[in-house]
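Inverse folding, one chain.
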């Protein structure tokens, strides 16, 4: 084997290794984007259930936009996975028939993957924005409770849903004194 043939062989091995790495990377991208989108859907639903109920939250359009974006991400991921499986079967058939020279690189998978990236990003940004805005709303909706005890003005913050205070304990850190209200 001469130098040129050796170089061509090593070049082809290198190209094959790069193609294998590329396929692995695409497979991981699909898996991770589906995992992130599914997890974000779970977080979104938990947020409206436990932190900011939908009836009391603001900018609900952002919440719905995030849900739609995550569902589209998942659907595109499944479509791309199915489509790439079909391409693999076609490539295997071409290889078995010694017709690999007829193989044409697919143009749709990169478009699917880019679309997944866009919709996943849109969903994450809209969900994070929605959560931040509603967490700030919950903070602002807290009411100030002030009690005058022994001639002192004692403020504390209690959320609206817990504003019916039966027992109130105040620790005066300046005078090292704890005062209880019943």
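Residues assigned per position:
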């Amino acid at each position: 084997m001469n130098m040129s043939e050796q170089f061509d062989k090593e070049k082809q091995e290198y190209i094959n290794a790069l193609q294998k790495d590329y396929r692995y990377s695409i497979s991981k991208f699909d898996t991770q984007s589906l995992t992130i989108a599914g997890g974000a859907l779970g977080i979104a639903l938990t947020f409206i259930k436990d932190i900011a109920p939908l009836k009391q939250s603001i900018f609900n359009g952002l919440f719905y936009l995030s849900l739609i974006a995550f569902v589209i991400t998942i659907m595109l991921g499944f479509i791309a996975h199915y489509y790439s499986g079909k391409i693999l079967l076609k490539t295997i058939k071409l290889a078995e028939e010694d017709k690999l020279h007829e193989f044409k690189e697919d143009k749709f998978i990169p478009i699917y993957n880019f679309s997944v990236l866009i919709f996943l990003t849109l969903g994450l940004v809209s969900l994070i924005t929605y959560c931040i805005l509603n967490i700030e709303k919950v903070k602002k909706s807290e009411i100030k409770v002030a009690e005058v005890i022994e001639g002192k003005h004692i403020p504390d913050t209690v959320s609206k849903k817990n504003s019916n205070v039966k027992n109130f304990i105040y620790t005066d850190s300046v005078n090292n004194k704890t005062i209880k209200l019943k």
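The first helix runs from residue 3 to 51. The first strand starts at residue 143 and ends at 149.
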